[in-house]
């Protein structure tokens, strides 16, 4: 890989241009005083052109350096993306493609709230609450993948998922987004029922008053 000095020897070019301009001025003085002003004007124009070239080259190098830094940052964060996002979202982010609005029809949304969460947060230590939520949400993520849904977000104790937005499918299988609405509703109901089972299986958080958060 060539360095910036090898690709753009601008200081050397500027020095050569300046020397040529001075030489032309001396020649003009020898040949005639009337040509001196023309030589000075040529020198000024040459130096201005070199200055513009220098500025453009620096801008290009700065943009290239920042683009490479962004590429390296994305590569470093790829393991994190694999843990947080589905494969189609990973491919979109790593491709650096411009965002394209997408329309999904007949999407089924599932929103789960933990009953008594707000009141329990005032009586339970943050560490105990986060441990319990992490156990519940980890199981919910695994169940959602099996059901073919997509996790939209986690808002406090609320878990929001959608069915009918993903296009990934097994070879020979119809894409999820093209399956009948009844299939999406069944998948959403199966996921909701699985959430209730998870809440029963994961040990609950017991408050100071002896109440259990379920």
UniProtKB/TrEMBL annotation:
Q: Which GO terms describe its molecular function?
A: adenylate cyclase activity; guanylate cyclase activity; nucleotide binding; peptide receptor activity
What UniProt keywords are attached to this protein's entry? Lyase, Membrane, Nucleotide-binding, Transmembrane, Transmembrane helix
Q: Does the keyword Membrane apply?
A: yes
Provide one Gene Ontology biological process annotation.
intracellular signal transduction
InterPro entries assigned: A/G_cyclase, Cyclic_nucleotide_synthase, Nucleotide_cyclase
Write down the SUPFAM superfamilies for this protein, in alphabetical order. Answer: Nucleotide cyclase
Q: Taking the first listed entry, what is the main subcellular location of this protein, grouped into a coarse class? A: membrane
Protein name per its UniProtKB record: Guanylate cyclase domain-containing protein
Q: Where in the cell is it found?
A: Membrane
Q: Which organism is it from?
A: Sexangularia sp. CB-2014
Transmembrane helix as UniProt keyword: yes
């Amino acid at each position: 890989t060539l360095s910036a000095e090898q690709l753009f020897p601008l200081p050397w070019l500027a020095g050569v241009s300046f020397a040529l301009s001075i030489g032309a001025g001396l020649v003009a003085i020898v040949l005639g005083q009337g040509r001196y002003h023309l030589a000075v004007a040529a020198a000024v124009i040459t130096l201005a052109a070199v200055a513009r070239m220098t500025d453009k080259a620096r801008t290009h190098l700065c943009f290239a350096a920042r683009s490479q830094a962004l590429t390296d940052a994305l590569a470093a964060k790829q393991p994190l993306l694999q843990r947080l996002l589905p494969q189609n979202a990973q491919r979109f982010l790593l491709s650096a493609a411009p965002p394209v609005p997408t329309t999904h029809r007949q999407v089924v949304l599932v929103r789960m709230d933990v009953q008594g969460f707000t009141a329990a947060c005032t009586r339970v230590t943050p560490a105990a609450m986060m441990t319990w939520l992490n156990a519940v949400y980890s199981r919910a993520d695994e169940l959602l993948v099996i059901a073919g849904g997509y996790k939209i977000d986690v808002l406090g104790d609320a878990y929001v998922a959608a069915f009918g937005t993903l296009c990934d499918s097994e070879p020979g299988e119809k894409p999820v987004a093209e399956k009948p609405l009844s299939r999406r509703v069944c998948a959403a109901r199966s996921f909701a029922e699985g959430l209730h089972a998870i809440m029963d299986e994961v040990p609950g958080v017991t408050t100071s008053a002896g109440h259990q958060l379920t």
